[in-house]
Amino acid sequence: MECLSPFLGEILRPMCDSMCSRVVNAIRFKSNVQALKKVMEKLVELSCNINYDHKDKSFSLKLMGWQRNSDEVITKARLKLEERRLSRKLVTIARMLEKEGLDLLDMVAVATAHERVEHVPGVSVLYQTTASNMLGKIIYGLRSSEVQKIGIWGMGGVGKTTLVRTLNNKLHEEAAIQPFGLVIFATASKDFDPRTVQKQIAERLDIDTRLEETVERLARRIYVRLEKENNFLLILDDVWKDIDLDLLGIPRTEEKKGSKIILTSRMLNY
């Protein structure tokens, strides 16, 4: 028996190695399939969202080139899935196309004409003397090169939200002469969630957001998009605590000349 042990070991080892290899390959295949299906869904979604009719011909060709490559990868991926012959390389290529598609989508958003200011539904305070005077002071601050941030503080119910909505809509009415390339209105709320505020900002910027995208990744995309504007005004309403604007992806106003931020809050020291 002692003589047979090494002999049996030599026979069984290749069998075990082969079995382990098949198990590992099966796990990898399943993982690759799941990853590829997820990316394919995103590629199809991006294909539907991108507008290929662009006035810049070279950019249009770039968009169409991406679409062609995307279609080829999707077709090849479906075939490989049917044949159960899937490589990690194909998943990597698909992910690269997904990233390129998202970047192109952001570029399309920048190139597409959009309203500099969007109307926000709400009651106006233009004909209320005290509120109208306050509005005048805010507008003066917005036009001053020495003012970068404006804080509006007061107890709940005094009309802070109504005031900034009126300001936003006044800028909307004066869109042709107001000084900002883009005005963004977002609400923080008591239960502040960075992702929720980011989504409001991203929607205003026509940035496509993904459920699995991290706050940091979306912040980078928002930052890059806002950096392409000459200047911007961010109106952040209903702030209850300190907010890290870097986390949201908002460029610093001291670095982005002409850009301003307005915050409304019940808290005096935020």
Could you walk me through the main structural features you see in this protein, from its secondary elements to its overall organization?
The chain folds into two domains: 108 residues, no CATH class; 137 residues, Rossmann fold (3-Layer(aba) Sandwich), CATH 3.40.50. It has a four-stranded parallel beta sheet. About 5% of the residues have low confidence. 57% of the residues lie in helices and 9% in strands. The protein is an alpha/beta fold. The N and C termini lie far apart (81 Å).
Specify the CATH architecture of the largest domain: 3-Layer(aba) Sandwich
Describe the strand arrangement of the main beta sheet, using strand numbers.
Answer: 1-4-3-2
Helix content: 55-70%
What is the number of independent domains?
Answer: 2
Protein name: NB-ARC domain-containing protein
Pfam family, one: NB-ARC
Organism: Brassica cretica (Mustard)
InterPro entries: NB-ARC (IPR002182), P-loop_NTPase (IPR027417)
